[in-house]
Design brief:
The chain is mainly alpha-helical and 328 residues long. Helices cover 70% and strands 3% of the residues. Helix 2 runs antiparallel to helix 12 (297-327) and helix 4 crosses helix 8.
Length: 328
């Protein structure tokens, strides 16, 4: 009986395919008890309690990660198992709902398309406001080309964190692995800052996110190159070359792989001047120096196709591997 119940937590190719289809077709579900919203609330609550106890350094940050990992892996796994004790159907519905809720490619593609629609109308103000939800930089002076570059940068960077990494950890560890990864990602986004308040306290969450994204980030770069090699208007060879040479230009050990790979695949240069709080923080470009800047509607639609197909390819590979393992 115990073995039958724990099987509901293991990765399943059909559950993965259903979760991906729902994510791409519908987008992020807006229900009240969405696990990411609940995880975010508990991060804030536990952080406040730890700081009141004086645990606001490395130890407090490690305790935050350990406590929340134990809490959320147990809660999500327990919910699926509780449903399975009622009926097999209830268990699988909860399993698929969790997979669907913890993937985030559909909404990202829709948000980028909303930005592009605004630019096609000539409404740069609306595009800037939408960009501000994706990037942490000054947007007031961004023109249409800068908005498009920022949208594609965010799209390619978040392909890893929002989709291919969750797929990887689900395939490897089922529901517990998927939930643990999303917790690490949420911790990084909420406490993983290099500021005096979070430099020590947020260290564990940021490093956990780095470790869990390490392999998926590099696999995503390779998948981008594979998809670009068969996608019209893209270059698989440049995706490999630019990703390999320029991934370290961007901050962090992981985000540069998919972003530089996408710049090479699209044969367009990305990033350029970025301002934060009125100060120029970088003016570095990524991409082949001979390539033009990304600045047209066609560039954005090619980027959306590249990212969507790369995400689908990652899920297809994971589902195929799971099917083979189940068959063996």
């Amino acid at each position: 009986m115990a073995a039958e119940l724990t099987a509901f937590l293991a990765a399943h190719p059909v559950a993965l395919v259903l979760g991906v289809v729902l994510d791409l077709a519908i987008g992020d579900p807006p229900y009240r008890w969405h696990p990411i919203r609940l995880i975010g609330r508990t991060v804030t609550d536990v952080e406040q309690r730890l700081r009141r106890m004086g645990a606001d350094g490395y130890g407090g940050g490690i305790a935050l990660c350990a406590l929340l990992a134990a809490l959320w892996v147990s809660l999500c796994s327990g919910a699926v198992l509780a449903g399975a004790t009622v009926s097999r159907l209830a268990g699988w519905i909860l399993h698929v709902l969790l997979v669907y809720s913890l993937l985030a490619l559909g909404d990202l593609l829709r948000h980028v398309w909303r930005i592009e629609r605004a630019l096609l109308r000539g409404d740069v103000l609306t595009a800037r406001a939408a960009i501000a939800h994706l990037v942490n930089r000054d947007t007031a002076q961004m023109d249409a080309a800068a908005c498009r570059r920022a949208a594609v940068e965010s799209l390619s960077e978040n392909l890893t964190d929002g989709f291919t990494s969750p797929v990887f950890w689900y395939a490897l560890g089922g529901i517990p692995g998927l939930v643990l990864f999303k917790l690490a990602s949420t911790l990084d986004s909420m406490v993983g800052y290099k500021t005096p308040r979070y430099l020590k306290f947020g260290w564990c969450g940021a490093r956990l996110d780095d470790v869990m994204n390490y392999l998926p980030a590099r696999a995503t770069w390779l998948l981008i190159a594979a998809v670009a090699s068969v996608l019209p208007g893209c270059s698989g060879a440049k995706a490999l070359a630019v990703g390999w040479r320029q991934h370290s230009i961007l901050p962090g050990p992981n985000s540069g792989w998919s972003e530089a790979g996408a710049a090479g695949a699209l044969e367009r240069r990305l990033v350029g001047p970025i301002w934060m709080n009125g100060r120029l923080v970088t003016d570095v470009w990524i991409g082949a120096p001979s390539d033009p800047l990304l600045d047209t509607h066609g560039d954005v639609t090619r980027a959306m196709r590249l990212v969507a197909l790369t995400g689908i390819a990652s899920a297809a590979v994971a589902a195929a591997v799971l099917s083979l393992l189940r068959g063996s």
